[in-house]
Amino acid sequence: MKRLLVLARHGQSDWNLKNLFTGWKDPGLTDLGVEEARAAGRRLKALGIQFDVAYTSDLSRAQRTCQLILDEIGQPNLTTIKEQALNERDYGDLSGLNKDDARAKWGEDQVHLWRRSYDVPPPGGESLKDTVARVLPYYVSEILPRVMRGERVLVAAHGNSLRALVMVLDHLNADTIPSMELATGVPLVYELKDDTTVASKKVLEA
User: Fold this and answer.
1) DSSP secondary structure code for residue 34 in this structure
2) Domain locations in the chain?
3) Residue-wise pLDDT tens digits, 129-167
4) Is residue 159 a known part of a binding site?
5) Is 38 annotated for ligand binding?
6) 91 is in an annotated binding site
7) Is 12 annotated as a binding residue?
8) What would the DSSP string read from start to end of 104-134?
9) 88 catalytic, yes or no?
10) Is 10 a known active-site residue?
11) Which residue out of 72, 88, 126, 158 is catalytically annotated?
């Protein structure tokens, strides 16, 4: 495949399991999360996919997911670039709180607004719009040029940082992106046209 871009959300983390807002906090993967990452690698290997470079965030759950995928496809020493711009959305004052406790404190409607609106940030944190503003310039300046040169690129990151990329690739907007979910450990395989738009997309579900 030419101009290959694969996006993979990290496997389940300890805080995903505990229903906590995570953001820039740094919990590790659960046993299930490790298996999700390995299974993602096996599904990519089954398609014969190899990479020229990998990108991941500054957070360990994404980094370990990236490494487990590379181990499974037989590229454990692939050049991997770690970049804070690919970090999860910063949930600010919500970070570390149980989502049910947050609803009890601020109310269902307010927490839903913080979680699902495009441009309303939680206290001290980032909205999805803020996350897009951080992720997209890095994608355009660093990742996309490599894809367009014909390199095969893996990006292992987070639900919201990857939604910023999916928003552009899938032509979603501020109304449609908030309801779009990315499953843990499920790679999205894109092939791009020579004008940077999407030629094909595969969702490698289990």
Assistant:
1) H
2) 4-203
3) 999 999 999 999 999 999 999 999 999 999 999 999 999
4) yes
5) no
6) yes
7) yes
8) HHH-HHHHHHHHH-SS-PPTTS--HHHHHHH
9) yes
10) yes
11) 88
42 annotated to a ligand binding site: no
Query: 4-9 and 188-192: which strand pairing?
Result: antiparallel
**Per-residue model confidence (pLDDT) at position 36:** 98
H-helix or E-strand spanning residue 7: strand 4-9
Is residue 2 very low, low, confident or very high in pLDDT (cuts 50, 70, 90)?
Answer: confident
CB atoms within 10 A of CB 79: 10
pTM, to two decimals: 0.95
Place of tokens 């980032």: 126
Three-class secondary structure of residue 160 per DSSP: helix
Catalytic residue among 10, 36, 72, 158: 10
Q: Which of 194, 167, 165, 196 is nearest to 179 (CA)?
A: 167
CATH topology of domain 4-203: Rossmann fold (3.40.50)
- Res. 1: pLDDT tops 80: no
